[in-house]
Specification:
With 535 residues, this protein is of the alpha/beta class. The protein contains 25 helices and 11 strands.
Length: 535
């Protein structure tokens, strides 16, 4: 056998991904596809879980298994430093980094029930910041039951949640009357909540008994409760619209039969929060309120174009992306209901997606944005959002980065380089749709660096958006990057943008020129630019 054939099995410069790098066997682990990669720290996995979730699992891991693995990592973080864990849960939730708040609530409940005394105390003190709505509180109650039930501290914390300003609590009681089998009646009874004032006492009685007997007219929320009761019995559309407008009633209290009226939706739109507005665009178009040239269309476009409003609403980019995809299609995700999209609204959603990431200073570096479009990236839901695969989310995120940079190349790969003609100059929805139809294939995350070497492409940083399920190649990605550095003389960096919440990465944790970040965090493009620019 030739020397070249012998050395390729032992070389540290080129090792098949199905084998560990010689000398680093203890540092690498099997991914679910059978390749060898690097494990991420529990703190990295905590971030991935909080932002990406584990709903619907991945191509290789079931939802149950992925959730169990992530829960184990969260528990290790709580045991190692409960205060730090709670702080990070609050940061992710409070900043709106994740498309759904459920993982943060789940992790907070774990800290509240399974942490040491300081961790439990910190978690319960953080309850109002993470569980901001009645729905969040019900989800926390469900998780608490799963982690051992109700202790004295948990009861006090939930009871305190109900002793915020009466008007604020009244809004929550009215808007989120019940979710997933839980009601405010259940929680108030369970916690034996003591009302802080007479005004709270009347509200608690309303939540438990459903009557307004103790509600005095002078209470700030009295008019709203009376309006909700009147709305439940009226069939007069004009009267209903007036009640909604005068008392700023939410959609949740409007009887179903009234929700076919444009007049009712017009009244709702006046005070509708941005997130609710985005969710109801299709309905408002279907009933005729949002139409070309209408005042409602102008209002919607203005709301979507208000960067400060986007920031305050914590409107996550994924929520905007899914609203754009659904609204522009003119058909519901499950095929129920159709509408004629208004182009100005489609344009505004497209702009809102990019704006939802905030201002990003270009890195000024040469970037290769590499999309993993292999088969495993086509399965699962990013952030628990039905209909958005890791592959599609990666394409959208790459376009945001490209839109802020001056010198970039977008490529795609699976077990070979895949032609992909997308750019920020396209409609976002069209670009995402273009990658959704690509054929399946194996995964070789070394290909972007090998391609750049072959084509003579000069890159200061490779940004690989992947699930790290690499296994197909004859050289590890870190070895391919080392070859690129040596042959070009460029100290190229590698940014691995995780699109699933698994526990491994293609990045070498011992290489300061490699960085692991979480995909679809609103801060991701800024992190990429900062890392590419630094050093």
């Amino acid at each position: 056998m030739a020397i070249k054939s012998l050395t390729r099995y032992l070389s540290k410069k080129s090792t098949p991904q199905s084998q560990p790098i010689p000398g680093r066997e203890r540092e690498q682990v099997h991914n679910d596809a059978g390749g060898y990669v690097f494990p991420v720290t529990d703190w990295t996995r905590l971030d991935r879980f909080l932002i990406l979730g584990s709903e619907n699992g991945t191509y290789y891991a079931s939802e149950q298994r992925l959730t169990r693995e992530n829960a184990a990592a969260v528990q290790r973080c709580i045991a190692a430093d409960g205060i730090r864990t709670v702080r990070r849960i609050v940061e992710v939730s409070d900043a709106g980094c994740a498309p759904r708040n459920d993982p943060a609530i789940f992790a907070l409940a774990m800290a509240a029930k399974l942490g040491d005394e300081p961790a439990r105390r910190a978690a319960l003190e953080a309850l109002p910041r993470v569980c901001r709505t009645g729905t969040h509180l019900f989800a926390f109650a469900e998780a608490v039951e799963a982690f051992g039930g109700w202790g004295r501290g948990t009861r006090r914390a939930v009871a305190a949640w109900y002793n915020r300003t009466p008007t604020e609590v009244a809004h929550q009681v009215v808007k989120y009357a019940q979710r997933n089998g839980w009601t405010h009646h259940d929680l108030l009874r369970l916690t034996h909540a003591t009302p802080a004032t007479a005004e709270h006492a009347a509200l608690f009685a309303y939540a438990v008994k459903g009557t307004r007997d103790a509600v005095e007219p002078r209470y700030a929320y009295a008019g709203m409760l009376a309006a909700v009761a009147e709305l439940a019995t009226t069939t007069d559309v004009k009267a209903a619209a007036a009640l909604i407008a005068d008392h700023r009633l939410p959609r949740e209290v409007v009887p179903t039969e009234l929700l076919t009226s444009p007049l009712v939706w017009e009244a709702l739109l006046r005070e509708m929060p941005l997130t609710a507005m985005v969710r109801n665009l299709a309905t408002m178009t279907r009933v005729g309120l949002i139409a070309p040239g209408s005042e409602a269309s102008r209002r919607v476009v203005a709301m979507l174009g208000d960067g400060e409003r986007l920031r305050k609403a914590r409107l996550h980019p994924i929520a905007v992306l899914m609203a754009l995809r659904t609204y522009a299609s003119g058909r519901g995700l499950r095929g129920k209901g159709t509408w004629q999209p208004v182009q100005q609204v489609v344009d505004a959603l497209d702009g809102a997606f990019y704006a939802s990431f905030g201002a990003v200073e270009p890195s000024g570096k040469r970037l290769v944005l590499a999309l993993d479009v292999s088969g495993s990236m086509a399965i699962g839901h990013v952030g628990g959002v039905v209909g958005l695969s890791p592959r599609e989310a990666a394409a959208a995120l790459a376009l945001v980065t490209a839109a802020t940079e001056r010198d970039y190349t977008i490529v795609a790969f699976a077990d070979k380089m895949v032609p992909v003609g997308i750019s920020p100059r396209q409609r976002l929805g069209d670009a995402v749709k273009a990658v959704s139809g690509l054929p399946f294939g194996g995964t070789d995350c070394a290909l972007p660096m090998l391609w750049a070497l072959e084509k003579g492409v000069k890159a200061d940083a490779f940004v690989v958006l992947t699930d790290s399920e690499t296994w197909f190649g004859q050289i590890h990605p870190v070895q391919a990057l080392q070859q690129y550095r040596q042959r070009t003389g460029i100290k190229a960096k590698l940014v691995v943008t995780a699109m699933t919440s698994t526990g491994y990465s293609i990045a070498d944790p011992n290489d300061g020129g490699m960085l692991d970040i979480v995909g679809m965090d609103a801060a991701t493009p800024a992190l990429i630019a900062d890392f590419a620019r630094g050093g």
